[in-house]
C-alpha cells in the first residue's frame, strides 16, 4: 500500500532526524532540509520546522526512540465508597486459602504437528 504525501513527508523528516542524531549533529530545520534534499526527496516546508522545534529540547529525541510509541491505557481503578470496608474485603480475601489447580492428562499421543510421540 503506497504512502500518502503526508505520511511520506513525515517519514522523510523522521529519518532525517535520526540521521542527524546518529551523526551527533544539531537538529535544525536547515539541517533536516539538507538531509532530505540530499536523499532526493521533497517535503512540505513546514515539516522540518515542526520537527526541529519539537526535537530542539535536550533529550527529546532519545525519549521518542526509547518510548516505543503510544500504547493503550490500562483500565481505571474501581471506585470505592468506603475505604474501611474496602480494607476489610482485602483482608478477608487474603485469609481465604487458594485452590490448587489439578494436573490434567490431556490424552497425549500427538505432538503439535499431528504425529505421535514415538519418534522422540
Automatic annotation (TrEMBL):
Residues 66-120 are annotated as: Disordered. The keyword Ribosomal protein applies. InterPro entries: P1/P2_N_sf. One of its GO terms (biological process) is cytoplasmic translation. It comes from the Eukaryota. One of its GO terms (cellular component) is cytosolic large ribosomal subunit. Keywords: Ribonucleoprotein, Ribosomal protein. One of its GO terms (molecular function) is protein kinase activator activity. Belongs to the eukaryotic ribosomal protein P1/P2 family. This is 60S acidic ribosomal protein P1. It comes from Albugo candida.
Amino acid at each position: 500500500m503506497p504512502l500518502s504525501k503526508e505520511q511520506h513527508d513525515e517519514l522523510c523528516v523522521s529519518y532525517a532526524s535520526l540521521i542527524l542524531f546518529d551523526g551527533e549533529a544539531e537538529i535544525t530545520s536547515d539541517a533536516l532540509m539538507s538531509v532530505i534534499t540530499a536523499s532526493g526527496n521533497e517535503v512540505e516546508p513546514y515539516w522540518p520546522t515542526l520537527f526541529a522545534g519539537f526535537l530542539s529540547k535536550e533529550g527529546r529525541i532519545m525519549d521518542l526512540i526509547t518510548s516505543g510509541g503510544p500504547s493503550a491505557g490500562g483500565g481505571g481503578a474501581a471506585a470505592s465508597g468506603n475505604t474501611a470496608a474496602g480494607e476489610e474485603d482485602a483482608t478477608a480475601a487474603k485469609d481465604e486459602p487458594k485452590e490448587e489447580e489439578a494436573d490434567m492428562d490431556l490424552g497425549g499421543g500427538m505432538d503439535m504437528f499431528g504425529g505421535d510421540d514415538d519418534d522422540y
